[in-house]
Write a structure and sequence with these properties.
Helix content: 55-70%
Order of helices and strands: EHEHEEHHHHHH
Oligomer: single chain
Number of strands: 4
CATH architecture of the largest domain: Up-down Bundle
Distance between the termini: 30 Å
Radius of gyration: 17 Å
Strand order of the largest sheet: 2-1-3-4
Number of helices: 8
CATH topology of the largest domain: Glutathione S-transferase Yfyf (Class Pi), Chain A, domain 2
């Protein structure tokens, strides 16, 4: 059985788990906290980041690489658009989510969850407000313009782009924040639709129970 090494609260681990659920591929989650990782883990993930997939004697780090691998291992149901232009757009949206969205929302999760729960520290709410009030709105504005009426942000069909975009917003939700539906109605409604899919709903419920959220 496949193993996914990582922490369930990571948006990147979640991205892989949702993809696995969409494809109906069984796996085992092996907990790894991405702080002070072991030499053994560094041999699997030279960048020291999670997640890492282990398929027999084959190991592969990085969520985007893992999702691409799963697409080759089990092509159906497809998560990558077959149209070349839509495929390119899906890859860009995945990259946008993994970089710009995560770097915008991630600090709020770090301050309110990681620092408080894992490091016994105190959240820097001034930093949180800077991210929420100043840095997030331009990102939300752009995503509002991309948000579809249905589930699929690319070509009207659910894809890896939707998984990548929706995943970091789960962390935002876990620490008490939501996209303001009055200011960004299309984005807020889109996220709720994506999260209602069984693949997302299952991991969100599991995380909520695991962390007492």
């Amino acid at each position: 059985m496949l193993e996914i090494h990582g922490a369930s609260a990571s948006p990147f681990v979640r991205k892989v788990r949702v993809a696995l659920a969409e494809k109906g591929i069984p796996y085992t989650l092996v907990p790894v906290v991405p702080f002070g990782v072991s030499p053994e883990f560094l041999r699997m993930s030279p960048l020291g980041k999670i997640p890492v997939l282990k398929d027999g004697d084959y190991t592969l780090p990085d969520s985007s690489c893992i999702v691409a691998y799963l697409e080759r291992v089990q092509p159906e149901p497809a998560l990558a658009p077959r149209d070349p232009k839509q495929f390119g757009r899906a890859l860009f949206l995945e990259e946008y989510a993994d970089t710009r969205v995560v770097e915008t929302l991630g600090p709020v999760f770090f301050e309110r969850f990681v620092k408080v729960r894992l490091m016994n520290g105190k959240a820097d709410e001034a930093r949180c407000r800077e991210q929420i009030d100043v840095k997030a709105p331009p990102v939300f504005d752009w995503l509002e313009a991309q948000a579809p009426d249905g589930d699929g942000i690319v070509g009207g069909r659910f894809s890896l782009a939707d998984i990548a975009v929706a995943s970091p917003f789960v962390n935002y939700r876990h620490v008490g924040e939501r996209v303001d539906a009055r200011r960004w109605p299309r984005l807020a409604a889109y996220l709720e639709r994506v999260w209602s899919r069984p693949s997302f709903k299952g991991v969100i419920e599991e995380e909520t129970k695991e962390y007492g959220l």
